[in-house]
Input
Amino acid sequence: MNYGSILPLRLADVSFAAGSRTIIDRVSLEIETGASTIILGANGAGKSVLMRLMHGLLSPTSGRIGWNAPERSGRPRKQAMVFQRPVMLRRSARANIAYALQIAGIPAPRRDALVHEALESVGLTHMAQRPARVLSGGEQQRLALARAWALHPEVLFLDEPTASLDPGATREIEAVIRAFDAAGTKVVMATHNLGQARRLGDEILFLNQGRLIERAPVEQFFSRPQTAEAAAFIKGEVPWA
Amino acid sequence: MSEALSTALALLIGLDPKLVEIVLLSLRVSLSAVAIAALLGLPLGAAIGVGRFPGRQTVIVLLNAMMGLPPVVVGLLVYLLLSRAGPLGPLGILFTPSAMVIAQSILILPIIAALSRQAIEDAWREYEEQLRSLGAGRVNAALTLLWDTRFSLLTTILAGFGRAAAEVGAVMIVGGNIDGVTRVMTTTIALETSKGDLPLALGLGMILIAIVIAVNAAAYLTKELAQRRYG
Amino acid sequence: MGLIRSLLLLVVLFAALAAGAQDKFIVVASTTSTEQSGLFGYLLPIFQKKTGIQVRVVALGTGQALDLARRGDADVVFVHARSAEEKFLAEGHGVKRFPVMYNDFVLIGPKSDPAKVAGGKDTLGALRKIKAAQAPFVSRGDRSGTHIAELELWKLAGIDLAKDKGPWYRDTGQGMGPALNTAAAMNGYILADRGTWISFKNRGDLAIAVQGDKRLFNQYGVMLVNPARHPNVKKDLGQTFVDWVVSPEGQKAIAEYRIGGERLFFPNANQPGA
Output
């Protein structure tokens, strides 16, 4: 199956306003294959909105967003998203993954194998038949990751995936993300957690009050931040934006 | 009074054929009505719950208001429709159980549509982002939510059935309370009580109450089961 | 609009299926008092056995029964208010009126008898005494045959209800059974048909006060609803019923009906002026 890569994703002068408030302010960037990208910023900086713009859940009020080869309906989705809180249907864990495959048009005979593979990749095979909504927070988030990854997307968006989880669950999720990254999926993750950004990211996009003000490889960003706001953020001094 | 009560119990225990005939007809009529109302009302509720169109708020308000349609008014309207002098007169179904089914379907359709609309809209609020992220279109989402909220919807259907089984105004007018043909529990209770003939009325009253309790118990247990097993 | 019509048709078909098949039947509009006397329960199975026609009785007050027929929703009317029936015919809604039978009214009252009318045979005198004593009197007030008869009696007694009625006269707008219930509850006087009275179980303190007065006789008539005016009327089946009810066989069945050993209805189809 060769549909051509959907990357790079290009944002050209993208703004998003809700009512009179500007949440994203003229952001231009390119997301390329390879390095895992971290969208970093304080709460309220606009990370979630930017993620949803890129994923296609929101439309920009001005500017343009374009993938390289636009997705056509009926083909397996090439990009998927995991949200801060996992949203599971009232079905078993495996049924939730099967649902995603069914929407994507995967014929029934092939779904079982893909579901099994996805559950294995996050270590949830033993929970396959349990109702998804009785799983713990961490398990549900792992299930969400499995569901997102089941179609082997090119790009995986993650919007603060561990913000609601305890440290143990956080470690498990980060391990899965690292594995997907190593397997070749492009990871784009929003977080406000500095340690997590350092652990998982190859490059940092720093968002401040809706504007992209700094972009650098991870080590360079943390050791030699170019802007005052970035420097303050790293030191933990930025109040809620 | 106690004599009437003991006669009533005798009728119940002995499965008096008249009593059984009336109860079976009542169940047939109300169950058919609930089936029709569910077939039409659930998709309608889902469509409104998930859809976005101009005038949507007005539709929702009207639908909620129609839950309180007085049964006699529905009976009157259906009578005018089915009367031989009316538009559907040639069908000749006035004063038959079919007319009663139609009247009750109209009566409980708003209940099922409005309550399912609420359930689905609440679920949509929770699921919308995730379902759209997975690539589900609105129609697909509506169907998915119909299944996902199935326990709430079952409670809704039970509520509709309870309302239908308990009403007397609509079936009285369009059915005519004809002996052996369109006499159901509620109309029989009304008739027998007015005749001062209490045993049959009491017996049927007890059955009706039992049905109402059973329906509510079923609704409660459904919610409990769902909560425990599916979260 | 076409979609709504076909949807409606679908619903109706489903409902029809759900409710089971219909064999041949007619709708007879009659009165609550006639039905509650139990006559139909006795008479109609005999008719159905002979002809295979199921008779479905919609029991209302006389006024409403005739109105139902005026809309064409009944095939036959079977009521007991001659003036209203003649009017119905004059309007062109009926084909012909045949006398069928008569029963009688009784004046019911509390055993305590505040107006001192019990045991007499003079209805008009009793009504005058009731008004003089301002004893509670329950009227059906529902344009039924009984109600029309009651109003006639007050008029004949020389009492102008519109002027003379007071809080003692209770106009309830109810059928015979409910009105009797009301009378029992308030210990009042009431005009009732003998049939309903015999079957009425909730008597409280009530008993028959006046009976046997010729003025209390109550004539029944049967009419086929005019198919020229209402094309959906089942005229053949309806005519079969009308013919049977006035035939010697039908008349015999009417005469044989008993409640508590008592005969209720007196067939008189052979009395053309009735």
About this structure: The beta strands of chain A are 9-18, 21-31, 37-40, 62-66, 79-82, 155-159, 186-191, 203-208, 211-217. Chain A touches chain B through 21 residues (CB under 8 Å). The radius of gyration of chain A is 18 Å. The mean pLDDT of chain A is 90.
